[in-house]
Amino acid sequence: MTLNSNTEATANRAQATIAMLSSLPFAADPLPGIGGAIKAMPGHFVVEEILPYAACGEGEHVYVTFRRAGWNTADAARIMQKHLGLTPSDVGWGGRKDKMAVVVQTLSFRCGVNRPLSGIERTLAELPFEILAIDRHRNKIKTGHVAANRFTVIISNAGPDALPRTRAVADRLKQTGVPNFYGPQRFGYGLQNIHRGFALFSTGKKGRKDTFMVSVVQSALFNIWLKQRMQAGDYRRLLSGDIVKKTDTGGMFTVEEPAIEDPRFTAGEIVYTGPIYGYKMKPAVDVAGEKEAALFRQFGFATEDFRPFRSPGSRREAILNLTDLTFAEVEEGLRLTFSLPSGAYATTVLREFTRPA
Predict the structure, then answer these.
(1) pLDDT by residue (tens digit) across 221-271?
(2) Is 90 annotated in the active site?
(3) What is the pTM (predicted TM-score) of this model?
(4) Residue in 29, 90, 98, 234 annotated catalytic
């Protein structure tokens, strides 16, 4: 059955979704958090983008690595593009980064093979950015061309016993990993993007311009799927039919015998994935597949509902293994450092610590 076109019914589904997203579980339960605040100052939230490859030194695209604060990715790219006399299609980046942060990021600019790097660097030096590196490469940076993001975050105004509580939560998360929820910023202020996303399916409004809002719906359903899995007590165990991903190579396969694969799962060599629903998504089967299908039916969707929006769907890792998480007490508060793969949210990790003490 396809999604009901009735506007009131669609609004009710959106409101129910918002209610489900308002109270996501914690991996560190029942440990108390430390409270506190993040981003009290821009310098308290630093993110460094790590590309999967380095510029090769030749080609028509110029890779510019720079540090910025108070600028979002799109605005920074736009002003750099205009100063270089290029068009928007000449610019590439791997992902959008937060405006209220100190960000180290690399953008690519198609400047041609004959334009001197020294001249490009002088032009960009006029802007309020710190140019850290500049080099040539053959290819444009495209969305998703990010291996990881490295975060350094200071939590200020933490509650009493913040250091031992941080240590306890960190130790727990190193064992359990962190549920890979989409962060609240994905859903807009007051989660209002949920209403906009669901409305697309009731009005029949279709096209590439709606890609992001459709992804909001997909993200919300993933979060609800993972919440339900955690509530069922299945967060730290494999189910028959799970589609898992190898953490070293990225290869994926379907679990037939959970008991056989459990040691690899416990060791962090594989991680189960969750549904980003779409018309070409590979579904889980057996027990895991039944749970995915039940959620899809609960919201009245059919896979073909996503075809007009050109949203094929995919699989998303359900657990983030924090292999390099460190913490320290500093003058401004508590400093956390950790790396996350592209598409994961630092706020998903930080909420485990900043929940009320």
Answers:
(1) 999 999 999 999 999 999 999 999 999 999 999 999 999 999 999 999 999
(2) no
(3) 0.90
(4) 98
